[in-house]
Design a protein that fits this description.
Layout (H helix, E strand, L loop, with lengths): L6 H10 L9 E3 L4 E4 L6 H4 L14 E4 L2 H13 L7 E3 L5 H11 L20 E11 L5 E12 L4
Parallel strand pairs: 3-4
Antiparallel strand pairs: 1-2, 2-3, 5-6
Helix pairs in contact: 1-4
């Protein structure tokens, strides 16, 4: 379960939350595509990936969650030797989405927590706890982080 209907919707909300403009950012909600110049902060995340996937300085990072566009980009890439598809699949483990998630975490200062407005009220005696967990590797870099909610109902205990 997510607060957003899709990873694309999360990415748009996170990109709009920046308090400075990202270079060459183009978002098309109708085509479900995002293009932008690779920000300096994001470049180190590409270091662990194959060199073929890393965009160069002149190429815009192009992402979509549209399966037809991804398949078309893959077919086109197969026609060319040693090419990675121009369009990349926008999913929760894409370096951009991971980076956006980490950036959103820094919006909360010390002794602050996110608030979630519920579409429907809670039942009497119910409490919802929102928890965050982060798991680093041996170098201290975050490998996995998750938000989860736990609902307690004192009437069922």
């Amino acid at each position: 379960m997510s607060l957003f209907p899709s990873t694309f919707d999360f990415a748009i909300a996170a990109l709009n939350a920046f308090d400075f403009p990202l270079p060459n950012l183009n978002v098309s909600e109708t085509e479900r595509s995002i293009e932008l110049q690779l920000p300096e902060e994001l470049k180190p995340r590409y270091d662990r990936l194959p060199k073929e996937i890393r965009p160069d300085e002149k190429t815009l990072l192009s992402l979509t969650d549209n399966p037809r566009e991804i398949m078309a980009a893959m077919v086109e890439a197969r026609r060319q030797d040693d090419r990675w598809p121009v369009k990349q699949y926008l999913w929760e483990f894409h370096p951009l989405v991971e980076w956006l998630g980490d950036r959103c975490l820094f919006h909360f200062g010390c002794h602050q927590a996110p608030m979630v407005q519920l579409a429907e009220g809670m039942a009497p005696g119910e409490a919802i706890f929102i928890c965050f967990g982060s798991f680093p590797n041996r170098r201290g870099a975050t490998v996995l982080n998750r938000w989860v909610s736990v609902i307690f109902n004192k009437n069922l205990l």
